[in-house]
Write a structure and sequence with these properties.
- There is one protein chain.
- Helix content is 55%, strand content 0%.
- It is mainly α.
Length: 92
């Protein structure tokens, strides 16, 4: 009974190890897989950066500075003025 199970199992195991997918169990096979994953991840990130740079961005609106007006003239008599000298205080 044991020979019936062992013989097909041994043949299946030999065929299974001969397949190219099983080469990844070796140290160099695992290193190659890790490198392929690294390259794929980096190329995907590079592609995402390119897409980001190509997308049109909204331009910064150009605001014109407001016009400042300097008034250098006579001040209305009706407007209040500050008292800074002692002479004007003595007049009150």
């Amino acid at each position: 009974m044991l020979e019936r199970i062992a013989k097909p199992l041994a043949i299946t195991l030999i065929i299974w190890l001969a397949l190219p997918g099983c080469a990844h169990f070796t140290r160099s096979g695992r290193a190659q897989l890790a490198y392929q994953r690294y390259v794929q991840k980096r190329s995907h990130m590079r592609y995402r950066q390119r897409v980001k740079m190509k997308t049109p961005r909204q331009p910064i609106p150009a605001y014109a500075p407001s016009d400042y007006k300097i008034r250098a003239g006579a001040v209305d008599a009706s407007s209040p003025q500050s008292v800074t000298s002692g002479e004007s205080q003595s007049e009150q």
